[in-house]
Amino acid sequence: MGDLATAFPADDTSVSHFSTLLSGELVRPSDPSYDRHRRVWNGSIDRRPALIARCAGAADVIESVRFAREHQLLTAVRGGGHSFPGLSVCDDGLVIDLGMMKDIRVDPERRTVRVQAGALLGELDRATQPFGLAVPAGIVTHTGVAGLTLGGGIGWIMRKYGLTIDQLLSVDVVTADGESVTASDDVNTDLFWGVRGGGGNFGIVTEFEFRLNPLGPYVMAGPVFWPIEQATRVLRFYRDWIAECPDEVMTIAVLRRAPDLPAVPPEWVGRHLIGIAACYAGPVDDGAAALAPLKAFGAPILDLCVPKPYVDHQATFDPSFRPGCWYYVRSCDVAGLNDDVIEITAEFGRRIGSSVSSLALWQLGGAVARVGDDETAFNGRGAGHSFNINGNAETAAGFEAEREWARAFWTALAPYHTSVYVNFLMEEGEARVEQAYGSAKYRRLKALKRTYDPGNLFRLNQNIRPD
């Protein structure tokens, strides 16, 4: 069976009937709220769907999938709307918007949490942190739990506790035929394997159940910054230092221009910096000892690595990834930081033009690497670092120059590319999706796609075609 059609053939009667079946809201282009609900986080994306189904629960999702299937509609699924390439909205088709589905239920005795698919990371943290518990998930609070999880889920405490998917106990999924099923280690195990890294290819997850881990509410965390002229020295120190760090230490090296924020000395605003942001997933005193060498290296111009609530640390990068800016990313994993990779990184860090462009160089390893490679669809557990090269702009002005910087940076690293994190892909074609999973997993994922979505209804994603 080929892909479903992209046109919008539904007549007014069928649309009106569909509207009556929803407990939530069906938004049309003529509605006053249409522009607000069609917008996504990436301001460079400007698409106009024919309908937006704002679902109030799983029953609405079922009705929406059945309507899309019956009328062969191009269908986008929106959780937090944080997709870099804007895959959570489409032109002319149907957007199934899960944003109203925010119920979060914590069981502190069992150390589990059930999370509906419209919840954001900040909302999840605020629900779990009063109990001193957390799910390893992301670094920007307005990211959607659903999209982050389905791609794997990297974040501040993953070296201690693993990826977000490594804490996943079960999911409730609406499949392409409009049926609701549960998947876990005990039931529909093939589907459970696939949703742990395979994205939204196999259905719409309406609810997640996670294992919770002890953390906080205070952690030793935050960034330390040096002038960009010291980037090579800092990165060489960083490479040697993290080689001996315990799993509790997670770091991200950041290269950017200093933002105009209250914590930044006015004389440094706009200047190129290198920073190492860290989080210690354990007692604050232990974290202070573990991170002391970082804070003592060289002569930092700004040290924001201090004891703080975990929920505050999770919001550290929120101002750098504001909704509405124009975003473009190139990404790759590398095995390690050899001298050549360090020199390339330092050189391109000095070339950053926009105040919102940046490099985030993620440290991997630890618990991430100790899960068997075949246990989940996620690929790249053996990588040392993940490059997230953001060529961003406040508006369309200058955006193409920032994108070209990101492309050139990525190309310069090409001799050292290994895998790539699927959540950091733009619309880069089938070959890159296959690279994200590796050939063997990609074949297994295609077979799973033929089972659960042979018509490729769910194709506005990093798509695994069923053919």
UniProtKB/TrEMBL annotation:
Names of required cofactors: FAD
The FAD-binding PCMH-type domain, residue ranges: 45-215
Domain of life: Bacteria
GO molecular function annotations of the record: FAD binding; oxidoreductase activity
Family matches, as Pfam families: BBE (PF08031), FAD_binding_4 (PF01565)
InterPro entries: BBE, FAD-bd_PCMH, FAD-bd_PCMH-like_sf, FAD-bd_PCMH_sub1, FAD-bd_PCMH_sub2, FAD-linked_Oxidoreductase, Oxid_FAD_bind_N
Keyword vocabulary terms for this entry: FAD, Flavoprotein, Oxidoreductase
Gene3D superfamilies for this protein: 3.30.465.10, 3.40.462.20, Uridine Diphospho-n-acetylenolpyruvylglucosamine Reductase, domain 2
The family this protein is said to belong to: Belongs to the oxygen-dependent FAD-linked oxidoreductase family.
Name of this protein: FAD-binding oxidoreductase
Organism: Phytoactinopolyspora halotolerans
